[in-house]
Each structure stands twice: as structure tokens, then as C-alpha cells.
Amino acid sequence: MIVGSGFSGSLLAWILQKNGLNCVLVDQAKHPRFAIGESSTPTADFLVRHLADRWGLRELEPLAKYGTWRQTYPSLVCGKKRGFTYYHHRQGHPFQDDALHSNSMMVAASRDDFQSDTHWLRSDVDQWLFQQAVKAGTVGLEQTKIRSSYFESVGHRWQTDLVGPDNQPLEVRSQWLIDATGGSQGIRPWTGVQPDSDWMRTRTSALFGHFRDVAPFGCTTPSHQTDLQTLFDGDDSAQHHVVQDGWLWALRFGNGVTSLGIVQPEGVCQHELSQVDLERTWHEWLERYPSVHQMIAKSTRVGPESGLGWMARLSRCNDRASGPGWVSLPTAYGFVDPLHSSGIAHALSGVARLSEAFLGDEGAVEQQIRKYALEVKNELRWIDTFVGLCYRALPDFEMFLGMCAYYFVSAIGFERDVAKDPMHWPRGYMLSDDRALREAGETTWQAASSGKTITLDQIRRSIAPWNDVGLLSAGGGNRLAHTAARKELL
Length: 490
Ligand SMILES: Cc1cc2nc3c(=O)[nH]c(=O)nc-3n(C[C@H](O)[C@H](O)[C@H](O)COP(=O)(O)OP(=O)(O)OC[C@H]3O[C@@H](n4cnc5c(N)ncnc54)[C@H](O)[C@@H]3O)c2cc1C
Description:
Bound molecules: flavin-adenine dinucleotide
Number of strands: 22
CATH architecture of the domain at 80-119 and 199-311: 2-Layer Sandwich
């Protein structure tokens, strides 16, 4: 039984069902429903492609590239994402750059629009995956909640009482309970798992929504003069409008809707905010940054229906990712922050590993799950460090970009490993098992936390063994032509 039919629960159900297991997929909501977390990455695309090949999901494969997605599923909404862009805004001043692009960075992930990554309109994508799982034979139960669940260790069996629409009672017996409830901690009452977030270094909040009529930011800045391949429209990217203590994301979908979200340090706003407070906070923030304000001046909010979304603290973690008869997908176990868009890829990496565990040698399932649970724990710590470093660097934009390099070397290294052999990740997810890289990041974290001055040159030296794509190269003009491993070679 998989609890939660977001993209990760639905995709896992589809894979397991198609390859011989019987799944029940339960969700308290009904598709299509609003969901946040939409900017995908080359890492995610590699994993989508791998999962499609490995488990015979022909229909999934087109989702690995913008071009094939649009050709095959024109009505399944996505956005074109050519890479990451970062624009530095100063309070009260319009955005301004110089010839060296000191106030912006563009990192191209793909060579052209066809090979491009995507933003996922999650209401569409999650519903589509749910439908695929059901088409494969999964029992899909929407608007259904767990009333109680009990694990009998003798016999390795869960007995779960559910309540469906119209209070209809249901009973399910399953060998495994898989937690795919994201941040809702939906199976916590039945597993005894405890929150364990105090150690986390990244502590931010988010205020977000979907908007229509967001104007282009208009920063189609000429890229590195010697390399025309870097040229892409800054609006076709995961746009980061970076300010003194946080940033605003802007992700444009093909249907005219844009996802916008402000990320600020935890505690900048009170935990309990009314919708009126949220609206006020939203407008006050935007008014401080004239160019961002201009971009959203004529926009209207179209989602979520209930008003602006608000999360007082984004980073969270549980004390474990598995236990007797249960296992959590990565986002149900923990999450750090939207910076670097690592959530979708992490969730997919969990789907990949749990598929191998459940569809592999039956006698080794428990051992595989224990191994996965330790890995995910280790990965979350690394993600927390490379994201936390960026926030530590603020308000210094140059250092913020410098710290982003830890993410980029991790993602690029992992993508290369997956492109070489998608079944083996010798350095772990996002190079989380690369001890030297972890030490390099930790040394920088310790220095930054103790108030020592860190120079860009120190970061350059720190990442040098992994940096063969020219990150932070002096005179590079903050423009990177192509960083991801080539999808067309897969
Ligand atoms: C503010 C924010 C911004 C983000 N931005 C990005 C980004 O740009 N890029 C990126 O890669 N990642 C991003 N993420 C992370 C991303 O949202 C997650 O990785 C992703 O949502 C994980 O999907 P999922 O299917 O595992 O869980 P979810 O999408 O959370 O789905 C969980 C499902 O479980 C159901 N559910 C919950 N509780 C219960 C219950 N008790 N019983 C039954 N059903 C239940 C819910 O209805 C839902 O359908 C962001 C996260 C946040 C918080």
C-alpha cells in the first residue's frame, strides 16, 4: 500500500504494478489538485529516462525532454527550462547589470529547446501518473484517509482501516506500507517515527502561488561572447531573483501560468499568518524590488484556491526512513529547500531504489530497504550543507554564486555517473558518498559559520577536483554554456 499519490507515489505504484506486484494507492485528496515543487533538472530527466527504460514504461519516456514531452503530450502542461538564472536585486533599485555580469548568472543545462528540461505543472503531471498507475492495475483510492493501521510482525502484514468518500469504510491488508505523503507525515501515527529536524542547517520559509499575466523579466542578456550556445531566454529557466536575505522563484508554464514564491529566513514572519497578513507580506516584499514588482504588476493569482501558500519552515526530517514493514520515499523522510530544485530528482532517485528493492531478489528486500534508508539520511545531510552554504553567503551575491558551485559540481558529477551506468551510482546520489567533496563542503561550512572571511578563490580551489566545466572561472562573465551530461547520448 502506497500512501500519497503525488508523482513519486504514483510512479512507484505504476512501476511495481506493471512489473508484477499488486498495489493500492491511497490519497486523501482528489486529482487534479494544486501542488508546489515544479522545477525539474537534468538529474531528474536522466532518472525519468532510466526508469522508463528499466521498467518498460514506454509512455513515461517522452517526459525526459521538453521536445518529446510537447510532441507526445501537448495537453499535459509543462514549461521550458533551459537552465538556471540568478539576478541580484538591491532594495529600492531597479535591476542593473554591467558588462561583466556581476549581477547575474546564467547556467545553461541544455543545448537547445528540444533537449531542454521542464517545469512540471504538478496538478497535471501527478494526475497523469496516477492514471497510468491505475491503468496498469493499481487500485487507486482518492479522497481516502487512513483511520488506523497496524503491523503484525508475524506474517509481515499491515492491516489498515480506511475511510473513503461518503465515509465509506475499507480494509486493506498489505505486506508493505510505503510513505509517499511528502511533508504531511501521513503515516507517522502508525509507525512511531519521530521528527528530527534540529540538526538542519538550512532554515527558510516560503510564500507562494500560481499567477497569470506575469510579464517577462526581459533579461535576455547576451551570454559569454565567445560561445553562442549559451544564449537562451532568461524567462525559459528556473529564475532566481536573489535579494539580501533570500530570493523569489519564477517558473513559467506553457499555459500562461507562472509559479512564484518568496523564500526568506525562518522567523522573518510569524508562524501563524492569516490570508490578509500573507497578502500584505507578499506585496510589501515585492514593492521593495522595483524590477520584480514591475514583472508581477498586472498579474492575478490563480492558485492555490484557498489563497497564497505559506510554509513557516521548509526544512524538516524524520529520525528514520524505514522500519518494520514500512519505508518512506525521500520527500516523506525529509526536505531541505527549493534552492537548486533538488526535490523532484531526489524523489525520483528514491523511486528508482525502491523499485529495485521490491522487484529484485525477494529475500533481500529488507536489507535493500535498510541500505536505502541510510543512504537517504546521508544524502539529506549533504543537500542541507550545499544549500545552507548559499544562504550563509548572503547578502554577498558574488559569494552566493560561489557557494552554488558545490551544488553544480555535485549534480554534474552525479548526472555523468547515471549517464555512464544508470544502475550504479558509485559516488552516491549527488556525490553524497564522495568523502573528499563532503570534506571540502564541510570545511567551507565551518569557516563560514565561524565568521571567517572566505574568498572566491578559496572556493575555486575547494571545488577544483570536480570542476571541469569552468564554474567560477575568472573572466567567465557568469555565463556557462553547458554543464549537464548530454541527454542526446543516452
Ligand atoms: C515551497 C517548495 C518549493 C519546492 N520547489 C521545488 C522545485 O522547484 N523543484 C523541485 O525539484 N522540488 C521542489 N520542491 C520539492 C517538491 O515539492 C517535492 O520533491 C515533491 O513534491 C515530492 O513529491 P511527492 O510525490 O513525494 O510528494 P507530494 O507532492 O507532497 O505528494 C504527497 C501526496 O500525499 C497525499 N497525502 C498527504 N497526506 C496524506 C494522508 N495522510 N493520507 C493520504 N494521502 C496523503 C497528498 O494529498 C499528496 O497528493 C519544493 C518543495 C517546497 C515545499
